[in-house]
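#structure-requests
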Amino acid sequence: CTRKNWNRVVLEGRKPDQKIAVGCGEAEHSLVEVGKTLFADLRRVAEVLDSHNQDSTEYQQVCDQLVASFDDPELTYSARILQAMKDNGVTGTGVALAEQYRHLLCEEPLEVLTEDDFTRQAQASVAAQQQLEANDKLDFEAYLASREG
């Protein structure tokens, strides 16, 4: 059912009243309903992520933008690309995107990493994880419950 849902969303996701299977059973629900429910849960995760960055709501804003696309399919990435291709043609859109990505990559500093760099980072990451877990006093559900306030 995952493949069937994937195909429906990719090929016909902007179709009004699109249905997808839930729980790999016979029950089908509207893509909008399932999507909004999923993003309501993801928004709770976004709140936790944002709480670790002072005065940040970036993750929550992304969730809100994606939820808005369920009500207005013109906000989806595919709709924006389609509109750009209508306005500028396929070649014009491709060239504009290539220039945009080229500019972004040119702004990034080039850093050559070695296998030792990755090994050190992996070891540091494992040590940091062990430290966090050693100091953890709440299970995840209790932590989420404490955040609902």
